[in-house]
Amino acid sequence: MEGVWAPKPSSGPHKMRECLPLCIILRNRLKYALTNKECMQICMEKCVKVDGKVRTDHNFPAGLMDVVEIDKSNDKFRLLLDTKGRFVLSRISAEEATSKLCRVTKVFLGSKGVPSLVTHDGRTIRYPDPDAKVNDTIKVDIATGKMTELIKFRLGATVMVFKGNNAGRVGTLNHIEKHDGSFDITTIRDSKGHVFSTRLQNIFILGATKSSVVLPKGKGIRKNIMEEKADAIARGDLSMK
User: Fold this and answer.
1) pLDDT > 80? residue 190
2) What is the side-by-side order of every strand in the sheet holding 124-126?
3) Per-state percent for the chain, helix, strand, coil, to nearest 5
4) What is the pTM of this model?
């Protein structure tokens, strides 16, 4: 973005620092609008859906794993993170747009003893799978809001880091260090063999062995500056003169 001011996301299912307002998606990422006023008009014409629901607020917060649909242009995107921790719109098929992954943040007994769980995007699901625990991932059918699959948090699972210095990196969960009274630390190995660590609450389970969602360009493997330089030279973006 250019300039001094930025649109503030409305209050919604995602935290202010962990989301993108729809006007940034429409204007700065997709270039479907030139001004904030045009974003407002697009949203008020009910052209934009987030997780299957029409959203007319141009500052509505879209966050990790949300499915953004624009029916007029037949576009469907999933919001993911690139290897530098920035939000990226990953184009998906119509079949994949019918579901999303949600991280379990809380499990509790509601009124009258109804078992319930809360997900990272603010959903409360009643009568979930009894095996579901905090840090597990569930697959949710967007049309019905029902849970269709449970992916357990365990060693060997494919995970994405969504917070911290390693945000956007994808790998296999190798080890969990327990620290009573402090933060539990996980060790992750990516497909190139690079090993890195992060806090347990910073990881999102993508699948039992392989990712259940299509990953964006780079497949979650962070390159060092020498590899990035070599790629830039190969593309012609950088000359060696």
Assistant:
1) yes
2) 124-126, 115-119, 99-109, 137-141, 147-151
3) 20, 35, 50
4) 0.89
